[in-house]
Design brief:
flat; mainly alpha; 33 helices; homodimer; 65% helix; 0% strand
């Protein structure tokens, strides 16, 4: 942007900037400021040039400017933008200034620093600049500014040249929208201030006076509440309303519900009050709607609402808490048994058989159902424990042994299918890799290494930079993350010929290995139970099948996840290669390689070889 | 190797080999064989040249040779070595023959194929060659060869030119050491054959005749057992001894113990016999010595030795089995309670508090100790369940609440130290990386990219190709693997200035992240318990501290484990670079990168963000 006018005023910007930098480096702020104003150079450069030096010499800056108008000009031009990287970049030769890494914003830092300096230098003299510094912050501090105006009115400064409240307010109105200022003046709860602002505004006294008079008539806390609510400052409103006593509690409860200020509200009322209880119940109701019934139960239980708590715990299958509350109520034995059965049923649906068995055994007093739940869940040792505890060896013959035989055949068949799928994927992977490598080399042969299409066929090209395959180890996993992972898996299609088929196959092979590896504990406990009941042959067959599967998958690792897959293409060198062709071939390999999200597909699954599952007595 | 003699017989080997290959490709085996014999070329080349073609045309080969001596010569020269890759490599231009990938050894495959062909062509004519094929196998089939000699003696062939048993035996003795042959003849249990071999040997009849006569006097099974034992074939010996009836069982048991043939022995006796029981007890004793007491217990229990089984189960803390056996015996109540206490004590030592509590509660009938165990183990909900079950709310005040407060402060302090260590390591890592990068660039500047020392300073150089950092997810982990990992960790020293300090820091940072991430479940259950007892402030503090720690560690991931760390050095290009210098700079980066064992240090730790631990009701 050049100033219009005579040619004399045209300056070469690079020269000007060089001169400005020199001035700023030697702390000649006045010269720099004058020049920048004249040539319309953004004033932000003064602090952006070297923020640390500027902040360390902020008093020098103010002293040199020695003009409230100039300080205000500087303040009003402040922007978050760093002009040394956008408008006035350093020439390349100069060292890059390290940016201050604090989380604070530049504008706020500069405003606060200037204001602090001016307040310690001469708060009266710099009054308007101080107000500007408040108003220019990222979140304007209008209340504080107004408060200062109000103080000026209460205690006018006697100093020569001091600013009057009137002047200060006028200046503020020049900086800020009058309605904003009115609202914020209300927020100080200072009616003098409100009136002062209102009078300066275009507002009709017929409108605001009745409202102010109504407010004035209210009890102080309720007055503040009303103002806060008017200004939509609901937390403050609640705080003031909570001090208004018994008769206003329903209003408070209403506010809490409307604005969902439950946890804030609980902190405002004492834990043993009836209000606290009412708030807890309201919160609990809200939490149940938010699928947080267990936390609702905790609130209800501790505030002395065991019946509602029981309902909340039961609905979230928080069975231990449910049973505790039920015994505290206390529920009659037959109802307790019913509750236990209900909870057990839910737990069985969630495959939590051991917990279900505990409920059935200890609270529903139905050891048979308990044992059957354990047998269904393949929790063999625990099933046997209950059988002996309740002297029900008959169940061993009728249920346990048949279930063991069924389990061993299920596990064997499952292993077989896993192994078959693994072998099929592995074979297909070899084919796909060969095809891709061939296609890639053909491409390079035809078009030379600069051909961008070649990359399409490279091994590494199937890296998807925007996806994750997070294999969470936990079984507790939120639904949303499950859905997300499902969606991501879809991108990796196993369909023959799909562009990322090789990745999909590697992912599938990793999944199978992990699934089979996870069976260690189950296979171990099944083998022990089989041996105990002399099903040695079945146990031997399973042990052999499982060992074979594990060994086969471990042996496939070097082939499926070769070391250095991430760099598996030999650099293209030879008599005809040039520096450029070599560079190109490296870049093709490197570009798609780096994504860390792929690391999981490229890394072989971890086998938990530390988990010993084999029985010595089976050969 | 050239034949000595006239110059006429000197041939250029490459030309000879080319000719041989042509003959072999056109199945002219006779010509090839003659030439190879004359020029002393290893006969293995005949089958190595193209194994598939050779095996497919094995009858043609035999027919063309048409000489038992020549076939024998070929058989005796067979070696496992592949002469096409060692002695007579293919010239580079010819396509590489795919090797048959079967697990079988070449010598065995060729011997079996030749023998099969000769047996179907004319077993009488090729008798000696067939014997050679048996003897030349990797594990010589001497019994079969001897058996064939014996058959010749029983049924001499009437065919013209047929080999007599006498001739065949002489031939065998020429191939095999006479003592080996004598031992193996014993192994056929055929005394005629033994005598036949013995007579041909240099053995003194005064020595072998009494032994053979003694053997002849024995009951057939016991006779075979004696021979098997003499030949150290213990499994066969046990098999024959097991058929010798009651009076020989002590001898069998002795053999089983000496040779550790327990599982084989169990399969030879019926499960309900007293022998089976005796064997099981012996096996169990052995298993206990081998630290496999649980499996010993299973054997003892199922063979009806509950008292010994109980001891075995108790010593291996297989507490469910121990309790079941104890109730089967049945142990009197006071002894059962003592047993339960003993087991619980061991479980507490292993930090298995829930199981200990079950024993104390249900079998020792000591609910107070059970609750205290659960409180010690921070199993809050289960502790509360037992408190309500046994109506012992007093323990809530005396023990549970104080323990909760202690736990929250322990966890908070632990988090603080983890965070402090994390920040310290992270800061140090940045310093180390900067130093390494600087040193590397300095090196390259001085010596050019070919300097091998430069690699010492490169980021990737700290990759240790021979180590693994296997972070097993299981808590069950064998002692040996723990020790191994410990030793590996030592190699990565955190000492300032150690050559792999950066890797050590990354490893340590990963470990801290994983440790903190693992606290999710514990923190969640602690928070719920704190809220229940209205320790909201402590809970809020912990929730905040934990959230900060997790966020800080997640935010550090891009810095500590930058994407593409494995290729993080820009290729050295510029006006002065050459094809060679670029290659060198790439190779420096690539060489140490590929090891997959490093992937774990280079990959950021997986955070289980699916495990929700935060409470909504705490803000």
């Amino acid at each position: 942007q050049m100033p219009r006018g005579n040619l004399e005023t045209v300056h070469h910007r690079a020269l000007v900037l060089a001169q400005l930098r020199k001035w700023l480096d030697s702390l000649k702020f006045r010269e720099a400021f004058e020049c920048m104003r004249k040539l319309r150079i953004n004033l932000n450069l003064i602090c952006d040039h070297n923020p640390k030096v500027f902040l360390d010499n902020i008093e020098t800056f103010i002293t040199q400017l020695n003009s409230i108008n100039d300080v205000n000009l500087f303040l009003t031009e402040l922007k978050e933008e760093d002009t040394t990287s956008t408008m006035y970049p350093h020439p390349e030769s100069s060292p890059i200034q390290p940016q201050p890494a604090s989380g604070q914003k530049k504008v706020d830092v500069v405003c606060d620093a200037l204001r602090g300096a001016m307040e310690s230098m001469d708060p009266n003299k710099f009054c308007l600049s101080i107000l500007t510094a408040h108003v220019k912050k990222t979140v304007p501090e209008l209340e504080i500014a107004l408060q200062k105006v109000h103080e000026l009115r209460e205690n006018p400064s006697e100093a020569p040249g001091a600013v009057s409240a009137e002047e200060a307010l006028k200046y503020l109105l020049f900086l800020v929208n009058v309605n904003d200022l009115y609202e914020h003046s209300l927020g100080t709860y200072d009616f003098d201030l409100v009136l002062m602002v209102a009078e300066k505004s275009q507002k009709d006294p017929k409108e605001y006076l009745p409202f102010l008079n109504m407010l004035k008539s209210l009890e102080p806390n309720y007055q503040r509440y009303t103002i806060d609510k008017h200004l939509k400052r609901y937390k403050k409103a609640l705080h003031h309303l909570s001090k208004c006593g018994e008769q206003h509690f329903p209003e408070a409860l209403q506010l809490v519900k409307e604005q969902k200020l439950y946890s804030e509200a609980l902190r405002m009322f004492s834990a043993n009050s009836s209000h606290y209880k009412a708030l807890s119940c309201a919160y609990a109701e809200h939490l149940v709607q938010q699928q947080q019934a267990e936390q609702a139960g905790l609130l209800l239980w501790r505030c002395g609402e065991p019946v509602s708590a029981l309902q909340a715990f039961a609905s979230s299958t928080s069975w231990r808490n449910a049973i505790c509350v039920a015994q505290q109520i206390p529920l009659p034995p037959d109802q307790l048994a019913l509750l236990a059965r209900d909870l057990a049923e839910k737990l069985i649906e969630q495959r939590r058989y051991s917990e279900a068995a505990l409920l059935l055994d200890q609270y529903a007093k139905d050891c048979e159902e308990a044992i059957l739940a354990l047998i269904t869940g393949a929790v063999w040792e625990e099933a046997l424990r209950l059988i002996y505890m309740h002297n029900r060896q008959d169940i061993t013959e009728t249920n346990l042994k048949p279930a063991l035989l069924e389990a061993v055949s299920t596990q064997t068949v499952f292993l077989e299918t896993q192994v078959v799928t693994f072998v099929r994927h592995r074979t297909r992977l070899a084919v796909v890799r060969e095809q891709k490598e061939k296609a890639r080399l053909d491409m390079l042969d035809e078009d030379g290494p600069d051909c961008p299409d070649a990359e399409l066929y490279s091994e590494a090209s199937s890296v998807m930079t925007n996806s994750k395959y997070s294999q969470s180890n936990s079984r507790i996993s939120s639904r949303s993350s499950k859905n997300r992972r499902k969606a991501e898996r879809k991108k990796l299609s196993l369909k023959e010929g799909s562009p990322m088929e090789d990745r999909a196959l590697m992912y599938a092979l990793g999944e199978i290995s992990t699934t089979v590896d996870k069976m260690r504990e189950d296979v171990h406990s099944l083998l022990k139970a089989l041996v105990l009941f002399e099903f040695d042959k079945q146990a031997e067959k399973l042990q052999l099948a499982y060992e074979d599967a594990l060994q086969m998958m471990a042996a496939a690792v070097p082939e499926v996840w070769p070391e250095g897959l991430q760099n598996n293409q030999a650099p293209l060198t030879g008599p005809n290669s040039t520096a450029n062709s070599i560079m190109a071939s490296f870049q093709q390999q490197q570009k798609p390689v780096v994504s860390q999200q792929d690391a999981e597909v490229l890394t072989p699954p971890k086998m938990r070889n530390g988990v010993k599952w084999k029985l010595t007595i089976l050969k």
